[in-house]
Design brief:
The structure holds two protein chains of two kinds.
Chain A: E1 7-11, H1 16-28, E2 33-36, H2 46-51, E3 60-63, E4 66-69, H3 71-81, H4 95-121, H5 124-145, H6 158-163, H7 170-177, H8 181-184, H9 186-196, H10 199-204, H11 208-219
Parallel strand pairs in A: 1-2
Antiparallel strand pairs in A: 1-3, 3-4
Helix pairs in contact in A: 1-3, 4-5, 7-11
Chain B: E1 7-11, H1 16-27, E2 33-36, H2 44-49, E3 58-61, E4 64-67, H3 69-79, H4 90-115, H5 118-139, H6 154-159, H7 161-172, H8 184-195, H9 197-200, H10 206-235
Parallel strand pairs in B: 1-2
Antiparallel strand pairs in B: 1-3, 3-4
Helix pairs in contact in B: 1-3, 4-5, 4-7, 5-8, 7-10
Classes of the chains: A alpha+beta, B alpha+beta.
Chain lengths: ~220, ~240
Amino acid sequence: MTIESDVVVVNFWGNGFGMRVRIALEEKGVTYEYKEEDLTAIQRSQLVLEMNPVRRSVPILIHQGRPVCESINILEYIDEVWKGNGAPHLLPHDPSDRAIARFWVHFIDNKLFSSQTKFLKSKGEAKEECKKELIAEFKQLEDVLGDKSYFGGDNFGFLDIAFIPISSMFYGYETHGNFKFEEECPKLSAWVRGCATRESVANVLPDPLEMYEVHKIFYGIQ
Amino acid sequence: MESKEIVKVVGFWVSPYSLRVEWALRLKGVEYEYIEEDIFNKTPLLSELNPVHKKVPVLIHGEKVALESLIILEYIDETWKQVPLLPEDPYDRAMARFLADLGEKLFVNAFMALCSEGDEKEKTLKLATEAVEKIEEELKGKTSKFCGGENMGYLDLALGWISHWLPVWEEVGCMKIVDPIQFPSTTLWMENFLNHPVIKEKLPPRDKMVIYFQWLRKEMVSQIAKYGPNGAWAILKLKSPPNYR
């Protein structure tokens, strides 16, 4: 399989983990080729099987023919490869701030993501419990944001990029759980609006209604 | 960047996550104070340091706190520049992080295989063996002693638990995950890891580990029988383990 471009991103349009990769590259001003992987199909493409034989998942960043897998790994790689020449830093400079950013990304990928999965899959009373847990976790992240414009302070950084794609599911969560993010998490909602004005985010995040529709298929929601 | 602030590690004697933090500091020659936390009787200190998860290990460095063992390893590497743990090249770094993450998945599956029976045990055993196959592929054909080359690095520290915990789990769980005939490169790497002077002097005693994991296995098997694998994790309320000290 020949890869023409220097930088290729393989992702499914509704996969938030892959949106992170595209946003990061666009923030860095890196041109890339996008290859869509249809996750609604049962089989993975030859490209994915070849480039990610271990996990057979997307996103994959293919840089000069070599694959980098797992979205957070990819963000760290992007930050380390494309630096200087006025390219913004994604991770903060100070080791302690870096550890804090990585901690909250780990929280999003482990706790928050599994809570949203449980919430989308549950019904009735269980759904109400899951909804409370999910909102509580969003509020924890809202506390981390505080009154800052971005999680990175004045800079749109690693934690912002890792977190913003999930906002494309806010309409879905609100519809599924009959609540409003604006009421529950006003600061987070303001942060989402602020991020949405960035070209990288506007270019990459899908329509929330389409996002909810495709997730209904994956999660078996009627 | 030398740092003279006080360093402390809050850990649990048999947690491979807290051991890997201690190994990293020792490799770098960084002095630290160790604080044992009984995870079955958690202290207010732990709640204060890690309010989100209330888990060990915690690294305290002066006024700063770092959480999650692999994140702590990166913090250690960025703060104390001697004896670098992560490779310099970004692609090699990405590979090391990817394989470390694979090692974490192996940990979960191997632990579940230890603590379950029947179909669940078979399923998790298969997943654990598949993960070792991937690690074997990475190590095969390497002429160096360690994943990090001739010197130990981040990936060795991340996967190191395999060499000392997995054989105990195999014994207690009556199972085999790292077959030396099927996985010769992994087996050799395990020996090299255990023989490293820094590692050798900082391993929990095997006999006490056997007692501890025998007890833990019994508790987990009974919880899983009542609540299923996910329920057991969520509501595990363990009584204090036997006197293993």
